[in-house]
Amino acid sequence: MTGGGLLVVLDVDSTLIGEEVVDLLADQAGVGAEVAAITQAAMRGELDFAASLTRRVALLEGLPTSALDEVRRRLTVTRGVPELIAAVHDAGGRVAAVSGGFTQVLDPLAGALGLDAARANRLEVAGGRLTGRVDGAIVDAGAKRAALLEWAGGATTVAIGDGANDLLMMEAAALSIAFDAKPAVRARADVVLPGRDLSPVLAVLGLRAR
User: pTM score > 0.70 for this model?
Assistant: First the structure.
């Protein structure tokens, strides 16, 4: 991803999609309540993201990889996403997604939506089951910021997110948009969008829907 123009980078869980993927996996594993409590604390900025993700993924140990197929079927793309991607592409720009979630879920979605780039954590798998560990470095707030800067290539950058883990990339972007976001994120964003529709981003960026 190089070149000028416009680059829009979206968070994934509760932004690009309506769900928190780790919570869906936790439901499959029967540890939904435990994982949800950790997720919410992390999104509010009360827990270090990397530590909280490690704790949540550990609770998924032994879950068969078939659970990932079920989670992919349950995802709902946020209203306005296809129109946003089409409008940015029509304007010669690029759209990417970076997530504290998991590549096994994000990569197929990114391909289906026509995203230009995507980055997330990889769940370690052995013998057809999750090991309860993340394979490689964790995509945390710093990694999200690094991805935006890496992909920018001279473009005007726009970052869209909802949680504390998105703040560093939002601060690094030329324009930050809080989408149905936590109070700490709304307080520090350039633009605040309530509700669950990303279509208003087109007007913010001066773009027209296809």
Answer: yes
